[in-house]
Specification:
The complex is a heterodimer of chains A (331) and B (348).
Chain A: H1 11-16, H2 19-32, H3 41-45, E1 51-53, E2 60-62, H4 63-68, H5 84-91, E3 98-100, E4 104-106, H6 118-129, E5 135-142, E6 145-152, H7 163-179, E7 183-189, H8 197-201, H9 203-216, E8 221-230, H10 231-234, E9 243-246, E10 252-253, H11 257-264, H12 275-280, E11 286-287, H13 290-303, H14 312-318, E12 329-330
Parallel strand pairs in A: 6-7, 7-8, 8-9, 8-10, 9-11
Antiparallel strand pairs in A: 1-2, 3-5, 3-12, 5-6
Helix pairs in contact in A: 2-13, 7-9
Chain B: H1 15-41, H2 48-67, H3 71-78, H4 86-93, E1 95-100, E2 112-119, E3 122-129, H5 135-140, H6 148-163, E4 168-174, H7 181-185, H8 188-200, E5 206-215, H9 216-220, E6 227-231, E7 235-237, H10 241-249, H11 255-262, H12 266-271, E8 277-279, H13 290-309, H14 313-325, E9 330-332
Helix pairs in contact in B: 1-2, 3-11, 4-13, 6-8, 10-11
The chains are: A alpha/beta (331), B alpha/beta (348).
Amino acid sequence: MDCLPHVDAYGIICAIESPRQREWSVRSVLNWIRRPKYASVERRDVPAGLWTKCPRCAALVYRKELERNLRVCPRCNYHHRLSAADRLTAVLDEGTFVEHDEGLVPEDPLEFVDERPYPARIDDAQRRTGLPEAVITGTGTIEGRRAVVGAMEFGFLGGSMGTVVGEKVARSAELAGSLSSPLIVFSASGGARMQEGPLSLLQMAKTSVALGRLSDAGVPFISVLCDPTTGGVAASFAFQGDVILAEPGALIGFAGRRVIEQTIKQKLPEGFQTAEFLLEHGLIDAIVLRGDLRPTLARFLRLFGAPEAPEPETVLAQSPSAGGGDNGRPL
Amino acid sequence: MAVPSDLAGAAFRDEAAGERLERELETVEREIAELKRITQSNQGLDLTRQIGVLEQRAEALQNAIARNPTPWQTVQIARHAERPKIGEYVAALTTDFVELHGDRAFRDDPAIVAGLGVVDGRTIAVIGHAKGRDTRENIARNFGMPNPEGYRKAVRIMHLAAKLRAPVVTLIDTPGAFPGKEAEERGQSEAIAKALIEMARLRTPTIAVITGEGGSGGALAIGVGDVVLMLERAVYSVISPEGCAAILWRDGSRSRQAARALRLTAPDLVGFGIVDEIVPEPQGSAHRHPDQAVAAVASAIRRHLTTLAARPVETLLQTRYEKFRRIGRLRDLGQVSEQSPRKHHAPG
């Protein structure tokens, strides 16, 4: 079940959003929609037709309309999963994203073979997503304020965290510290990646030491929990945010539903481990509609006194050579 | 007792041999049970000698397995009910131990024991998972699987230790954090995430010892040590072999294979740079020689306490940072990252 009762009932965030801002944000988003650098996984999963059937309300939605609406069902507000690249496009000022550490790719330290060898699974995930790993990280601006951002790709081996994901999140925290820019990470992950065994587990510690240092440096971290955020990712950086936001209906938790049901020998109630459930239990700050994420994040960046970045054109003109330590290239 | 020649050491390095021993042990144990049953139902039939021979063989087989277990056998040893528990370690390590209770918010979690004690004249905090020895005690302790309040108690005692400049020793032995309904409602993820980040920056020396079962995030939550020790037959894994088999092979019975694939034994963990030192178990099994095993652990902890206490806290924090920051294996195709001005890179 992922039924959402009322779209307007999600905590403070809806309340602080004026209609004008919302309209502005949606219009701006429309302007920025362009072909992302990486192919969207979910887009490929959609059948070849022009129409997508909403899994919740069963409405047939014109696919382009769904994309324009940031993959939120216009009828029932169901939030379809969004690829990492599309998410960055939707949230950041156009042309400001500079990717970092895109050269980091996984090894096969355990020589892990289940039904298929791990390297074959990686190759397959890379081919299907067009991404080297399950997270994209870099810098960008939101309404002119600079942030270090990371977005996880659930389509890449379930967004699982192996060495590369841990490393990129840790490097992002270090970069945020050195730039004194807030860190924003969009999580979408089943948890630690089994195929890297204990090394995956210890990425929870790696991200924690980096985020602990960022916190000690007085630089804020906004964690945005997307569908799903569970296991070792939930139990490390995703829940270490100074502010924790979530998308409506997102599945968020430590243990999987089946494991819990087997352990306690009873069925879990509807809506268990949804964003709404977590808000009610005091575990997250707010639920934010996807269309409101950009202005909401911008508001937090202002509240946190995030540095104002130069105009996007200037940034583009300077980067990557004169990016003041920036080591990436524009998206 | 003498080791039968066919069970002497190097002859069975490979896993197939280890599994043969295990199958033989099962057969021998079945035969012993069968003989005992026959004795009981046939008064006057004396099979004591035959049973004695078989029991000797079983013992020899058990010892042989313990000396060179397969990964799956190591998991069984690590979970053995008679391995030393936190109480024995605390008794051997500290004097004047006082247990402290509760997270000051919800309740006391009996699956985690925390308190203060004295080692060689120095106050330390001890925090660890508490498994029970029998079913009754295990139910009371929730089989050593903490709820969020357990991790919150752990963090509370860590902060107290930092305030006292008292080193923290953690003892890890858990199947994992409890996967329960209330645990989710009270924020199991948040509790573990918080424990990780607090231990990562704790301004006092930290020593983590994996004494038995190092079950995933629920174990690591109290495992961010300046020094990480591991008993010879303990395991430390991202997921239980059973869980891994159920997910990856869709067949929980392939745990044996999963245990091998997951690389969860102490030598594996040392190889990955996750564990600093293995504490040897007497003849490969702490549960058969608990006093010696506990003494070995206590002595290793004492040695590291002395070393760590001599270091300035800033050095400790920097070293701890680098230690955990470095863990992992990756490749940098790196046209970009080579120019990175940042200092800390994972090794390629």
